[in-house]
Fold:
Amino acid sequence: MEDVRQTVTRTDDNGVDSSGANVHQQTKRIQTEAAVNANTTAQNIVWYILGLVQILLGMRFILKLFGANSANTFVDLIYSITRPLTLPFDSIFGVSSTTAGQTSSVFEPSILVAAAVYALIAWGIVKLITINQKTD
Structure:
C-alpha cells in the first residue's frame, strides 16, 4: 500500500485595493506525495518475476504445440531457458505428439502444471510479505 502525505498551506491577506475597498484574499495550496513502502516494492518484484516466468513458459508451450524448429536459435534459446523450469514436472504426465509431414507437434501438460505451481508459489510469497501489513 502507498502512504499518502498531504501538506496544506493556507494564507489570508487583508488589504485595501486602489479604489479604497477592503479586499480579503485566501490562498490554499495542497501538495500530495505518495511514498511506496518496502513491502509494496517486494510484492511488485515477485509479481514481475512471475510474469516473466509465465511469459517464457507460455512461449515454450506454444512453440512445442506448433512444432517449432528446435534448430532455430530463438526457439533453442526459449527451450534452454525454460527447461530447468519444467524439469521437476516432466514425469507427471506423458507427452503426446503428432506428426504431419516434417512438423512434429508436442503437447506437454507439464508446462501448464509448472505455470500453475509457480503462480501458487508467487502468491504464497506475496502473502508472506503482507502477513503483518495493516489493511485499510
About this structure: The mean pLDDT is 86.
